[in-house]
Structure prediction request, 459 residues.
Amino acid sequence: MNLDQHHYVLPAREIPTAWYNIAADLPEALPPHLNPQTGQPVTPDEMGRIYPQAIIEQEVSTERWIEIPEPVREKLAIWRPSPLIRAIHLEKHLKTPARIYYKYEGVSPTGSHKPNSAVPQAYYNMKEGIKRIATETGAGQWGCSIAFACQHFGLECKVYMVKVSYEQKPFRRSMMEMFGGTCIPSPSNETEAGRNLLAKDPECTGALGIAITEAIEDAAGREDTNYALGSVMNHVCLHQTVIGLELKKQMELAEDTPDILIGCAGGGSNLAGLVFPYAKETMDGKGPQLLAVEPSACPTLTRGKYAYDYGDSIGLAPMAGMYTLGHSFVPSGIHAGGLRYHGMAPTLSMLRKLGVIDAISYQQNECFEAGVTFARQEGICPAPESTHAIKAAIDEALKCKATGEEKAIVFNLSGHGHFDMLSYDKYLAGGLEDYALPQENIDTALDNLPEAAAEATIS
Prediction:
């Protein structure tokens, strides 16, 4: 079999020239971000304390297409377009009539989809004279990516890494430092928020919401520093649409049309990047099924509430209308650290509320099992986060085996797992635990939604 029969690669000139903005095609307006103190819509001046002007404009824009600056495209060309690969060996192993494809984002310099947004964010901050970026990271993918991007545009980079992942994935820290960044575990003693949390719970393992709080406090306290977020926000989802825009061209090369698109979901950026360019067709009843896959230990879309909530754990970040488990919710220490976030991107949340996107959740052992199956057949060790999408793709393929349907299944392989081998070691030794999340834990966190949010309830 020739390689071109299952590898679909575009030339660099096919890197998209504009990002697609889903806000232009939503049937109703997104709820505005709210000031966490007043409960009123956040003003551009307030956002300008921690974001560059271009990012603020993208966050609230309803323009369908937003041009990608040429210096950004030049950096993206280091690894983009990413390949679309048909998983023929996995298909044979499963004995399924389904056609399984994966968009492989692990070819980036840091091994995931995260640089797709890190590069433009660093560029826009550099253009406005910012010298330093403060940010958070879960599994370390975003931290590595923003450190890489800051290096390319001459910025300093400080990363607050969720403590449990800092300990599970030490070489992510090494990669951040290789790219010139500084990485510390969160909660830390370097911010007031971190010190307060450690005083209450010295053994706190951290969460993305906590790390976000620390990074925002850092950025707000220095004139030369801005904050950069790796997921959730509208502008981040916008930047990630290069994934789905490339996919459309690659599916044409494959002479195929996806019946279902699958992505793991933590804050939502890699899923958004995959599905947003197809979402209008799905809303019109002509597109593929769109499926979000999340961990059972942090089931934001499957068991959360659509409401206003803080984007961080303390309440420094603006309130967003989104699916949430409650900003005080601290998920268990699962190994898919990038999926341990209490909320979900407002744009994805809107599509979920409207029934455009479906959602399911899995326990981590069954996801690792799927990841090992994929690695043994396709030769790529997937990131723990990506194994959630693989598990769902395998389940869909097995359904096709049972029914005889010949569906085209496409999932986003959002990153490789080369820095996650300690997690795989634990799985292979039978040492991974699944976590049964009691409803009372969710209810307790949801009871603590901000008071200002109650006065700005969204339907």
